[in-house]
Amino acid sequence: MLKHWPPLGTLRGFEAAARLGSFHKAADELHLTQSAISQQIRSLEAYLEQPLFFRSGRSVSLTDAGHDLLSTTQTLLQQLAVGIRRLGQYQKPNQLVLNTTPAFARHWLLPRLGDFRRQHPEVDLWIFSTDEVPDMASQTIDLAVRDDISSQAECSFKVLHADRLYPACHPNLLALPREQRTTLHGEREMDWSHWAVEAGIDVGQQDQGLNFSDPGLLLDAACAGLGIALVSQLLSWQARANGLLQPLVEQTIRGPNWALLTHRDSESNARNFSEWLLRNLEATSPTT
């Protein structure tokens, strides 16, 4: 790895000259003198210890090394420009960063976001969905709603909902014999082994089948008719209402606790979202 990087200005000068095929045009574009561009190119060639341009009078063309470097430099400058533009989102006065799981974001939050926007159009909500539990002290996160979090320093912690799990599948699969139904498995501890201990009911689950690390994708697979799954009662509420899921039995078992983490000095936007979240959870959470 290089111990030192060439100055960014020399790379910008090289990219412009290579793209335009002219030191003069590059100088005009970057508001520099032609001699400044020439000096940047010479400095870069000395650093790399090889020529980047063929020079013939006032015309220039790229060497093979120059073509290679042009591709790399354009990619680098484009990524840098995108990254710098993206920083503007941190300056939004009403930015609210919510961390949650992909499953909660897709299956519970997304169908209800329109209601939140109607009630609070001034809030620029940024949904940061990840499988990793956030560190509220070191990350730019205003609040977190997850089923895998515990209390953290300088944060308020509140359990919002005690979830329940139940076996379900697409209604079309109910016509098949039990032994012909594929079993869908999740990678979390509350899977079919948890069902066997808590409920002790055989619904035709098998050790073989399809495996999913994402509970939301597991739910999607069940709704698509790929097999039977042990699903979250909270996250599957919409799918059941839409007729995409049907329980195999009426029994439900203990699931994970959904909790809320907020900074103790949270601002009004975070409080507004928390209150909206609580109201909607109470309105849409099924009875146990």
Describe the structure.
The protein is built from ten helices and eleven strands. The protein is an alpha/beta fold and 288 residues long. The chain folds into three domains: 8-88, Orthogonal Bundle (Arc Repressor Mutant, subunit A), CATH 1.10.10; 92-162 and 257-284, Periplasmic binding protein-like II (D-Maltodextrin-Binding Protein, domain 2); 164-255, Periplasmic binding protein-like II (D-Maltodextrin-Binding Protein, domain 2), CATH 3.40.190.10. The strands form three sheets. Strands 3, 4, 5, 6, 9, 10 and 11 form a seven-stranded mixed β-sheet that branches. A two-stranded antiparallel ribbon has the order 1-2. Strands 7-8 form a two-stranded parallel sheet. Strand 7 (184-186), helix 7 and strand 8 form a beta-alpha-beta unit. The radius of gyration is 28 Å and the shape is elongated. The mean pLDDT is 90.
Terminal-residue CA separation: 58 Å
Return the average pLDDT rounded to an integer.
90
Please report the number of helical segments.
Answer: 10
CATH class of the largest domain: Alpha Beta
The major pleated sheet works out as:
7 strands, mixed
User: Percent helix among the residues?
Assistant: 25-40%
Which structural category do the helix and sheet elements fall into?
alpha/beta
Portion of residues in beta strands equals: 15-25%
CATH topology (level 3) name of the largest domain:
D-Maltodextrin-Binding Protein, domain 2
Radius of gyration based on Cα positions: 28 Å
In CATH, what is the homologous superfamily of the largest domain? Periplasmic binding protein-like II
Number of E-state strands: 11
Q: In the CATH classification, which architecture of the largest domain applies?
A: 3-Layer(aba) Sandwich
